[in-house]
Amino acid sequence: MDFQEAHDILTNHLKASGKHRATPERFAILDAVLQSQGHFDAESLYYRMITNGVKVSKATVYNTLEILQDCGLVSKYRFAENTSRYEKAFGRPHHHHMICLNCGDIIEFVNDKIERIQEEACNEKNFKVQSTTIQIFGTCSKCTKRP
Amino acid sequence: MDFQEAHDILTNHLKASGKHRATPERFAILDAVLQSQGHFDAESLYYRMITNGVKVSKATVYNTLEILQDCGLVSKYRFAENTSRYEKAFGRPHHHHMICLNCGDIIEFVNDKIERIQEEACNEKNFKVQSTTIQIFGTCSKCTKRP
DNA sequence: CTCGGTGCAAATGCTTTGCAATGTC
DNA sequence: GACATTGCAAAGCATTTGCACCGAG
Description:
The structure is a homodimer.
Chain A: H1 3-17, H2 24-34, H3 42-51, H4 58-70, E1 74-77, E2 85-88, E3 96-100, E4 106-109, H5 112-124, E5 128-139, H6 141-145
Parallel strand pairs in A: 3-5
Antiparallel strand pairs in A: 1-2, 3-4
Helix pairs in contact in A: 1-2, 2-4, 3-4
The first copy, chain A, binds a DNA duplex through α2 and α4.
């Protein structure tokens, strides 16, 4: 994980937008995201930062996650619950999710064939893709074994 | 659209559950859903019913939409916004959505190949599928033409 | 007659907002 | 300096809940 490269992406994005400023909070939040594993929500990222002695407000966390999403450093998902989940997208292949409705486990999977078919379908309809999400809800193998 | 058949599905589902009762409100909500076109949210379904002189509470609408989802008569989605969207699923093929980030238009599409590949991917991971959602975000052809 | 369901209204919890203070550019 | 950004705390808003009454089985 190359922090410097991620910082550069954010810096360029902020500059390119014309009226965004490079604040320490934004880079601190990016760092916290880069250190994260798997999926997290805004709240827990906030608490992790506070616990680590980084000063931020929740409002800034939400705001910055939005910006990080805009420049592709973070992906945002909404699974079953009422909370948005995020994950770092930097240095990771595009993937999708199987969500176990029993234990809440999230299994990631990559599939090039689907990717290609989606593209075809969009070309057919002259739809210009920006991002795609596939969510498969069901029961994971662990939960199928032990009821 | 066969109302009777849908009613039967609901009746059986309620009976099968063992402790759900067949109340007039539940069937009234099912009827309102069957009369709907495209996607709607709980609020607008509620207001449509009230306007038509059907007496229900919002709580019951939410509760019943959950039940209708359980028996496959309704599908629930969460697109970009903060509101859950529903659509009737009775007598409709399984399909997915392209969401235009510009005008909010939702384009439905069906693709058997994707369906099959998803199944394969799940078999590989011993994941028992219950439902799948594909969401493609981007710009529709209309919006691409006129900026 | 029993207990699940209904309808309010109030509560919940995630997310956004208003505003004064702050710090980039 | 100008004005975007921050940090609170308060507001918003979709959804859920608590509770007394109602009615299906």
